[in-house]
Protein backbone atom coordinates (compact mmCIF):
# COMPACT_ATOMS: atom_id res chain seq x y z
CA UNK A 1 0.00 0.00 0.00
CA UNK A 2 1.11 3.52 -0.69
CA UNK A 3 2.29 4.95 2.59
CA UNK A 4 2.45 8.61 3.46
CA UNK A 5 5.27 8.04 5.88
CA UNK A 6 8.09 5.92 4.52
CA UNK A 7 11.56 5.75 6.04
CA UNK A 8 13.61 8.85 5.35
CA UNK A 9 15.27 8.12 2.04
CA UNK A 10 18.84 9.31 1.54
CA UNK A 11 19.16 12.33 -0.73
CA UNK A 12 19.92 10.87 -4.13
CA UNK A 13 19.18 13.83 -6.37
CA UNK A 14 22.08 15.52 -8.16
CA UNK A 15 23.74 18.20 -6.06
CA UNK A 16 25.02 21.70 -6.76
CA UNK A 17 27.09 23.51 -4.14
CA UNK A 18 27.50 27.27 -3.80
CA UNK A 19 29.67 29.04 -1.25
CA UNK A 20 29.52 32.58 0.03
CA UNK A 21 32.76 34.45 -0.74
CA UNK A 22 34.45 37.11 1.39
CA UNK A 23 33.05 39.71 -1.00
CA UNK A 24 29.51 38.53 -0.21
CA UNK A 25 28.99 37.02 -3.64
CA UNK A 26 27.90 33.41 -4.11
CA UNK A 27 30.05 31.16 -6.27
CA UNK A 28 29.49 27.67 -7.52
CA UNK A 29 31.97 25.08 -6.23
CA UNK A 30 33.23 22.36 -8.56
CA UNK A 31 35.45 20.35 -6.15
CA UNK A 32 33.70 16.94 -5.78
CA UNK A 33 35.17 16.34 -2.32
CA UNK A 34 33.79 19.58 -0.93
CA UNK A 35 30.43 18.87 -2.54
CA UNK A 36 30.40 15.39 -0.97
CA UNK A 37 31.34 16.78 2.45
CA UNK A 38 28.47 19.30 2.44
CA UNK A 39 26.07 16.64 1.19
CA UNK A 40 27.10 14.33 4.07
CA UNK A 41 26.62 17.12 6.58
CA UNK A 42 23.22 17.92 5.13
CA UNK A 43 22.19 14.25 5.19
CA UNK A 44 22.99 14.19 8.92
CA UNK A 45 20.85 17.31 9.49
CA UNK A 46 18.01 15.82 7.42
CA UNK A 47 18.20 12.59 9.40
CA UNK A 48 18.23 14.48 12.68
CA UNK A 49 15.19 16.49 11.58
CA UNK A 50 13.36 13.29 10.62
CA UNK A 51 14.23 11.67 13.97
CA UNK A 52 13.11 14.81 15.76
CA UNK A 53 9.79 14.85 13.91
CA UNK A 54 9.31 11.13 14.61
CA UNK A 55 9.94 11.64 18.33
CA UNK A 56 7.98 14.82 18.89
CA UNK A 57 5.11 14.52 16.46
CA UNK A 58 3.15 11.33 16.83
CA UNK A 59 1.31 10.64 13.60
CA UNK A 60 -1.94 11.80 15.14
CA UNK A 61 -4.51 11.36 12.42
CA UNK A 62 -7.48 10.85 14.75
CA UNK A 63 -10.61 12.16 13.05
CA UNK A 64 -8.94 12.56 9.66
CA UNK A 65 -9.76 10.47 6.61
CA UNK A 66 -6.15 9.62 5.78
CA UNK A 67 -7.30 6.62 3.78
CA UNK A 68 -9.00 9.05 1.37
CA UNK A 69 -5.81 11.15 1.20
CA UNK A 70 -3.79 8.01 0.41
CA UNK A 71 -6.28 6.92 -2.22
CA UNK A 72 -6.24 10.35 -3.89
CA UNK A 73 -2.43 10.53 -4.05
CA UNK A 74 -2.25 6.93 -5.23
CA UNK A 75 -4.83 7.51 -7.99
CA UNK A 76 -2.78 10.49 -9.14
CA UNK A 77 0.29 8.27 -9.30
CA UNK A 78 2.22 10.57 -7.00
CA UNK A 79 5.31 9.56 -5.06
CA UNK A 80 5.85 12.04 -2.26
CA UNK A 81 8.08 12.83 0.68
CA UNK A 82 6.87 11.64 4.11
CA UNK A 83 3.96 13.61 5.56
CA UNK A 84 3.94 14.77 9.18
CA UNK A 85 0.86 16.09 10.95
CA UNK A 86 1.73 18.64 13.60
CA UNK A 87 -0.18 20.70 16.10
CA UNK A 88 2.00 23.77 15.88
CA UNK A 89 2.08 26.31 13.10
CA UNK A 90 4.93 26.99 10.70
CA UNK A 91 6.56 29.69 12.79
CA UNK A 92 6.41 27.72 16.03
CA UNK A 93 7.73 24.66 14.27
CA UNK A 94 10.55 26.71 12.77
CA UNK A 95 11.52 27.93 16.23
CA UNK A 96 11.42 24.42 17.73
CA UNK A 97 13.52 23.01 14.90
CA UNK A 98 15.99 25.87 15.13
CA UNK A 99 16.73 24.83 18.72
CA UNK A 100 17.70 21.49 17.23
CA UNK A 101 20.07 22.96 14.72
CA UNK A 102 17.74 23.10 11.71
CA UNK A 103 17.25 26.68 10.66
CA UNK A 104 16.25 26.52 7.04
CA UNK A 105 12.70 25.26 7.29
CA UNK A 106 10.51 28.20 6.48
CA UNK A 107 6.72 28.09 6.50
CA UNK A 108 4.95 27.94 3.17
CA UNK A 109 1.36 29.10 3.58
CA UNK A 110 1.55 28.85 7.37
CA UNK A 111 -0.92 25.97 7.29
CA UNK A 112 1.59 23.53 5.91
CA UNK A 113 4.86 23.27 4.09
CA UNK A 114 6.73 21.20 1.58
CA UNK A 115 10.42 21.31 2.51
CA UNK A 116 11.80 19.79 -0.67
CA UNK A 117 15.45 20.46 0.25
CA UNK A 118 15.18 18.23 3.29
CA UNK A 119 12.51 15.88 1.94
CA UNK A 120 9.49 16.23 4.19
CA UNK A 121 5.93 17.53 4.08
CA UNK A 122 4.09 19.06 7.03
CA UNK A 123 0.38 19.71 7.51
CA UNK A 124 -0.65 21.73 10.52
CA UNK A 125 -3.63 20.46 12.53
CA UNK A 126 -5.34 23.71 13.46
CA UNK A 127 -7.90 22.76 16.12
CA UNK A 128 -9.93 25.95 15.67
CA UNK A 129 -10.11 25.45 11.92
CA UNK A 130 -11.01 21.77 12.29
CA UNK A 131 -13.85 22.71 14.64
CA UNK A 132 -15.22 25.31 12.24
CA UNK A 133 -14.56 23.67 8.86
CA UNK A 134 -14.28 20.02 9.85
CA UNK A 135 -11.23 17.74 9.55
CA UNK A 136 -11.47 18.12 5.75
CA UNK A 137 -9.54 21.39 6.13
CA UNK A 138 -6.43 19.53 7.34
CA UNK A 139 -6.77 16.89 4.62
CA UNK A 140 -6.91 19.73 2.06
CA UNK A 141 -3.71 21.25 3.44
CA UNK A 142 -2.06 17.82 3.24
CA UNK A 143 -3.18 17.37 -0.40
CA UNK A 144 -1.82 20.81 -1.33
CA UNK A 145 1.60 20.10 0.16
CA UNK A 146 1.76 16.52 -1.12
CA UNK A 147 1.00 17.82 -4.62
CA UNK A 148 4.09 20.08 -4.41
CA UNK A 149 6.11 17.14 -3.14
CA UNK A 150 4.99 14.88 -6.01
CA UNK A 151 7.46 16.66 -8.32
CA UNK A 152 10.37 14.21 -8.21
CA UNK A 153 12.73 15.43 -10.91
CA UNK A 154 14.79 17.37 -8.41
CA UNK A 155 18.29 18.73 -8.13
CA UNK A 156 19.27 19.86 -4.65
CA UNK A 157 21.41 22.91 -4.19
CA UNK A 158 23.21 23.95 -1.05
CA UNK A 159 24.49 27.37 -0.16
CA UNK A 160 27.24 27.28 2.47
CA UNK A 161 27.36 30.68 4.18
CA UNK A 162 30.41 32.14 5.84
CA UNK A 163 28.67 32.03 9.25
CA UNK A 164 28.56 28.22 8.98
CA UNK A 165 24.88 27.91 8.03
CA UNK A 166 23.85 25.74 5.15
CA UNK A 167 20.65 26.30 3.24
CA UNK A 168 19.26 23.53 1.09
CA UNK A 169 16.46 23.62 -1.43
CA UNK A 170 15.69 22.23 -4.83
CA UNK A 171 16.56 24.09 -8.01
CA UNK A 172 13.06 23.40 -9.26
CA UNK A 173 9.91 22.14 -7.59
CA UNK A 174 7.36 21.83 -10.36
CA UNK A 175 6.94 25.33 -11.77
CA UNK A 176 8.75 27.00 -8.88
CA UNK A 177 12.37 27.81 -9.66
CA UNK A 178 15.13 29.03 -7.36
CA UNK A 179 17.76 30.88 -9.35
CA UNK A 180 20.99 31.34 -7.37
CA UNK A 181 22.37 34.80 -7.92
CA UNK A 182 26.06 35.68 -8.06
CA UNK A 183 25.38 39.44 -8.08
CA UNK A 184 26.05 40.79 -4.54
CA UNK A 185 23.55 43.61 -5.07
CA UNK A 186 20.69 41.15 -5.38
CA UNK A 187 19.17 38.51 -3.11
CA UNK A 188 21.14 35.26 -3.15
CA UNK A 189 18.17 33.36 -4.46
CA UNK A 190 15.71 34.71 -6.99
CA UNK A 191 12.37 32.94 -7.01
CA UNK A 192 10.22 32.43 -10.09
CA UNK A 193 7.10 30.49 -10.95
CA UNK A 194 5.44 30.43 -7.50
CA UNK A 195 2.14 31.68 -8.94
CA UNK A 196 1.86 28.80 -11.39
CA UNK A 197 3.11 26.14 -8.96
CA UNK A 198 0.71 27.28 -6.22
CA UNK A 199 -2.15 27.37 -8.72
CA UNK A 200 -1.47 23.83 -9.94
CA UNK A 201 -1.36 22.29 -6.48
CA UNK A 202 -4.28 24.26 -5.11
CA UNK A 203 -6.44 22.97 -7.95
CA UNK A 204 -5.65 19.48 -6.60
CA UNK A 205 -6.80 20.60 -3.16
CA UNK A 206 -10.05 21.83 -4.75
CA UNK A 207 -10.56 18.50 -6.57
CA UNK A 208 -10.11 16.63 -3.31
CA UNK A 209 -12.49 18.95 -1.45
CA UNK A 210 -15.23 18.52 -4.07
CA UNK A 211 -15.07 14.74 -3.53
CA UNK A 212 -15.83 15.22 0.17
CA UNK A 213 -18.04 18.33 0.38
CA UNK A 214 -20.86 18.48 -2.22
CA UNK A 215 -21.43 22.20 -1.49
CA UNK A 216 -18.07 22.86 -3.19
CA UNK A 217 -19.30 21.42 -6.51
CA UNK A 218 -21.79 24.27 -7.17
CA UNK A 219 -20.39 25.92 -10.35
CA UNK A 220 -22.38 29.14 -9.86
CA UNK A 221 -21.42 29.95 -6.29
CA UNK A 222 -18.69 32.55 -5.88
CA UNK A 223 -17.11 33.79 -2.66
CA UNK A 224 -15.78 37.32 -2.19
CA UNK A 225 -12.02 37.22 -1.67
CA UNK A 226 -12.33 39.79 1.03
CA UNK A 227 -9.09 40.05 2.96
CA UNK A 228 -7.92 43.16 1.17
CA UNK A 229 -9.34 42.59 -2.28
CA UNK A 230 -13.08 42.98 -1.80
CA UNK A 231 -13.60 43.28 -5.56
CA UNK A 232 -12.42 39.72 -6.27
CA UNK A 233 -14.76 36.74 -6.23
CA UNK A 234 -13.58 33.17 -6.57
CA UNK A 235 -15.49 29.90 -7.11
CA UNK A 236 -16.63 28.01 -4.02
CA UNK A 237 -14.57 24.95 -4.94
CA UNK A 238 -11.48 26.69 -3.51
CA UNK A 239 -13.04 27.90 -0.26
CA UNK A 240 -13.50 25.69 2.81
CA UNK A 241 -17.02 26.33 4.14
CA UNK A 242 -18.07 26.28 7.80
CA UNK A 243 -19.71 22.98 8.81
CA UNK A 244 -22.71 25.00 9.94
CA UNK A 245 -23.01 27.89 7.52
CA UNK A 246 -26.21 29.23 9.10
CA UNK A 247 -24.29 29.86 12.36
CA UNK A 248 -22.65 32.83 10.63
CA UNK A 249 -19.15 31.45 10.02
CA UNK A 250 -16.99 32.67 7.17
CA UNK A 251 -15.53 30.73 4.28
CA UNK A 252 -11.76 30.32 4.54
CA UNK A 253 -9.66 31.78 1.76
CA UNK A 254 -6.15 30.81 0.71
CA UNK A 255 -3.86 33.04 -1.37
CA UNK A 256 -3.03 30.11 -3.75
CA UNK A 257 -6.73 29.99 -4.71
CA UNK A 258 -6.25 33.24 -6.65
CA UNK A 259 -3.67 31.39 -8.77
CA UNK A 260 -5.69 28.21 -9.24
CA UNK A 261 -8.71 30.21 -10.35
CA UNK A 262 -6.48 32.12 -12.81
CA UNK A 263 -5.03 28.88 -14.22
CA UNK A 264 -8.52 27.40 -14.61
CA UNK A 265 -9.52 30.50 -16.62
CA UNK A 266 -6.52 29.94 -18.91
CA UNK A 267 -7.30 26.23 -19.34
CA UNK A 268 -10.87 27.11 -20.29
CA UNK A 269 -9.31 29.05 -23.22
CA UNK A 270 -6.92 26.16 -24.08
CA UNK A 271 -8.20 22.79 -22.73
CA UNK A 272 -4.82 21.11 -23.51
CA UNK A 273 -3.41 23.05 -20.55
CA UNK A 274 -5.27 20.72 -18.16
CA UNK A 275 -3.07 17.77 -19.06
CA UNK A 276 0.07 19.94 -18.94
CA UNK A 277 -0.86 20.85 -15.36
CA UNK A 278 -1.42 17.18 -14.42
CA UNK A 279 1.72 15.97 -16.21
CA UNK A 280 3.88 18.68 -14.62
CA UNK A 281 4.39 16.44 -11.55
CA UNK A 282 6.12 13.78 -13.64
CA UNK A 283 7.49 15.43 -16.71
CA UNK A 284 9.46 18.67 -16.97
CA UNK A 285 8.60 18.93 -20.69
CA UNK A 286 4.99 19.53 -19.61
CA UNK A 287 6.24 22.67 -17.84
CA UNK A 288 7.86 24.02 -21.04
CA UNK A 289 4.71 23.17 -22.96
CA UNK A 290 2.61 25.07 -20.42
CA UNK A 291 4.72 28.19 -21.10
CA UNK A 292 4.45 27.77 -24.86
CA UNK A 293 0.68 27.48 -24.58
CA UNK A 294 0.48 30.53 -22.28
CA UNK A 295 2.42 32.55 -24.86
CA UNK A 296 0.05 31.36 -27.59
CA UNK A 297 -2.83 32.85 -25.59
CA UNK A 298 -0.94 36.15 -25.27
CA UNK A 299 2.69 36.76 -26.26
CA UNK A 300 4.81 37.25 -23.10
CA UNK A 301 2.16 35.77 -20.77
CA UNK A 302 4.46 32.99 -19.46
CA UNK A 303 7.05 35.50 -18.33
CA UNK A 304 4.44 37.81 -16.79
CA UNK A 305 3.09 34.96 -14.66
CA UNK A 306 6.51 33.45 -13.83
CA UNK A 307 7.74 36.77 -12.46
CA UNK A 308 4.93 37.10 -9.92
CA UNK A 309 6.10 36.69 -6.32
CA UNK A 310 4.30 34.78 -3.60
CA UNK A 311 2.18 37.47 -2.00
CA UNK A 312 -1.45 38.48 -2.08
CA UNK A 313 -1.00 41.54 -4.30
CA UNK A 314 1.03 39.68 -6.92
CA UNK A 315 -1.39 36.75 -6.90
CA UNK A 316 -4.38 39.13 -7.26
CA UNK A 317 -2.50 40.74 -10.17
CA UNK A 318 -2.05 37.27 -11.74
CA UNK A 319 -5.79 36.67 -11.58
CA UNK A 320 -6.44 40.08 -13.19
CA UNK A 321 -4.01 39.17 -15.98
CA UNK A 322 -5.85 35.86 -16.64
CA UNK A 323 -9.20 37.69 -16.71
CA UNK A 324 -7.76 40.22 -19.19
CA UNK A 325 -6.53 37.39 -21.41
CA UNK A 326 -10.03 35.83 -21.30
CA UNK A 327 -11.52 39.17 -22.38
CA UNK A 328 -9.02 39.40 -25.26
CA UNK A 329 -10.39 36.00 -26.35
CA UNK A 330 -13.98 37.22 -26.11
CA UNK A 331 -14.92 35.76 -22.71
CA UNK A 332 -15.81 37.61 -19.53
CA UNK A 333 -14.40 35.86 -16.44
CA UNK A 334 -14.46 38.91 -14.26
CA UNK A 335 -16.77 37.44 -11.61
ZN1 LIG B 1 1.99 25.80 -1.66
Tell me what you see in this structure.
A four-stranded mixed sheet has the order 2-1-6-7, covered by helices on one side. It has a three-stranded mixed sheet with strand order 3-5-4, sandwiched between helices. The chain is of the alpha+beta class and 335 residues long. The mean pLDDT is 87. The protein starts with 14 loop residues before the first strand and ends in a 7-residue tail after the last helix. It folds into two domains: 15-174, no CATH class; 194-328, no CATH class. Helix content is 44%, strand content 16%. The protein has helices at 32-56, 66-76, 90-99, 127-133, 136-149, 194-212, 255-269, 272-279, 284-297, 301-306, 312-328; strands spanning 15-20, 26-29, 83-86, 112-115, 120-124, 156-160, 166-170, 172-173, 176-180, 189-192, 222-225, 232-235. α2 runs parallel beside α5 (136-149), α6 crosses α7 and α8 (272-279) packs antiparallel against α9. Residues 108-109, 144, 148, 198, 201, 256 line the site of zinc ion. Zinc ion binds at residues 108-109, 144, 148, 198, 201, 256.
Tell me the major beta sheet.
4 strands, mixed
- By DSSP (H or I, 4+ residues per run), the number of helices equals 11
* Strand residue percentage: 15-25%
Find the count of extended strands (DSSP E, 2+ residues).
Answer: 12
Across the major sheet, the strand order is: 2-1-6-7
Q: Low-confidence parts, pLDDT < 50 over ≥5 residues? A: none
List the domain count as a whole number. 2
Question: What is the CA-CA span between the terminal residues?
Answer: 43 Å
Question: Which structural class is indicated by helix and strand composition?
Answer: alpha+beta
The shape, in one word, is: globular
Helix content: 40-55%
Hetero compounds: zinc ion
Question: Residue-averaged pLDDT, rounded?
Answer: 87
CA radius of gyration is 20 Å
Amino acid sequence: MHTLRPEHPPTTSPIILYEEQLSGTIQQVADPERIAAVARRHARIAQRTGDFMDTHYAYNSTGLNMEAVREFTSNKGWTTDPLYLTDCNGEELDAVLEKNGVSYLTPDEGAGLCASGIGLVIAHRNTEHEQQYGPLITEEVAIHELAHSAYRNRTTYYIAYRNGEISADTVRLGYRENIVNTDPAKDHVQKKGAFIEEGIVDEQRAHYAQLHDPRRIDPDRQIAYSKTHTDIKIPVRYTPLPINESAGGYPLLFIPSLASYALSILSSLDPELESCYEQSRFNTDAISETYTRFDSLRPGLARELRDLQYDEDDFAEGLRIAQDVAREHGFDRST
